[in-house]
Design goal:
Rossmann fold, single chain, Quinone Oxidoreductase, Chain A, domain 1, alpha/beta, seven-stranded mixed beta sheet, 15 strands
């Protein structure tokens, strides 16, 4: 690919690390709308601009309404070229100071996951100190960031996973407990252990989503930022309306939310979890690592 040439109001950033997201994997598999090739993938990046260490806001054109993205909103890394490269031309307003306590791979792991988790927890679910939170599918980048942000905010956090090892590792990051959703009756045991939840954060959907209202306390909020398992069968509306439960969809976040997330990460010295680091020339191996699904944290390219 040619060296990027900046357009009006753009700058060129020297990328030092870039992180993979499932979006990148789905594009390589043809499982994404509006695929355009050739294109450089990658939404997450950290690098240098004029000698300053910066992280990149991972989207373009959020729009003027803080409540939802505008019609021209798009994620970095297709159709526009993304971060899996030595350099990127990007609008000047997309670059932000990198949290000082992070190294390159940790900073690259932060933007999309941190922004998505921040908006889901705080903008949509209005998480408060002392509330109990369930984060499902722990091990993915957004779920882990949601865990770390919620713990730093003073919440009691529980997790679910199909892996006992991932639950144990989440407890090392501050989770109070967890449940393996492959075990029968896991939801009832978890509710008894926790006392019920004020906030549930999910990205999978599917039939397991139907269990969440039963785990919720009155006035709870269920925030979700994905639906990889598809439609929800068997969801009963009765506990939702009787308990005054809110279902809240969320996607990415605005530049203002990105700035707030970075400040919170800096204040609490939160370190994103990095699963593994591959060189840019080992990009195929990095995609294979993500496709296997056993990662705990972000898969990163060191550039």
């Amino acid at each position: 690919m040619p060296v990027p040439q900046p357009k009006k109001n753009e700058v060129v950033v020297d990328i030092r690390a870039a992180a993979l997201n499932h979006r990148d994997l789905f594009i390589t598999q043809g499982l994404y709308a509006g695929i355009k090739t050739p294109c450089i993938l990658g939404s997450d990046g950290a690098g240098e601009w004029r000698g300053k260490r910066v992280v990149l806001y991972p989207a373009l054109d959020w729009g003027d309404n803080p409540n939802f993205q505008g019609k021209s909103f798009r994620v970095l890394g297709m159709p526009e070229d993304g971060t899996f490269a030595e350099q990127i031309a990007i609008p000047r307003k997309n670059i932000f100071p990198m949290p000082e306590h992070l190294d390159w791979p940790q900073a690259a792991a932060l933007p999309l996951a941190g922004l998505t988790a921040w908006r889901t927890l705080f903008s949509r679910c209005k998480l408060k100190k002392g509330e109990r939170v369930l984060i499902t599918g722990i091990g993915g980048g957004v779920a882990l960031m949601a865990l770390q942000l919620a713990v730093a905010a003073g919440a009691e956090v529980f997790v679910s996973s199909g892996s006992d090892d991932k639950i144990a590792r989440a407890q090392q990051l501050g989770a109070k407990g967890g449940a393996n959703y492959r075990e029968e009756g896991w939801d009832k045991r978890l509710k008894q252990e926790s006392g019920g939840f004020d906030v549930v954060v999910d990205s999978a959907g599917g039939d397991g989503f139907a269990l969440f209202p039963g785990l919720c306390n009155p006035g709870a909020r269920i925030g979700f930022y994905g639906g990889t398992l598809g439609k929800v069968n068997g969801l009963s509306l009765q506990p939702i309306f009787w308990k005054q439960i809110s279902l809240l969809g969320s996607t990415m976040g605005s530049p203002r939310e990105f700035r707030s997330m970075l400040a919170f990460v800096q204040q609490h010295e939160i370190v994103p979890v990095v699963d593994s680091v591959f060189s840019l020339s080992e990009g195929v191996r990095a995609f294979e690592r993500m496709e296997l699904g056993g990662q705990f944290g972000k898969v990163v390219l060191g550039i």
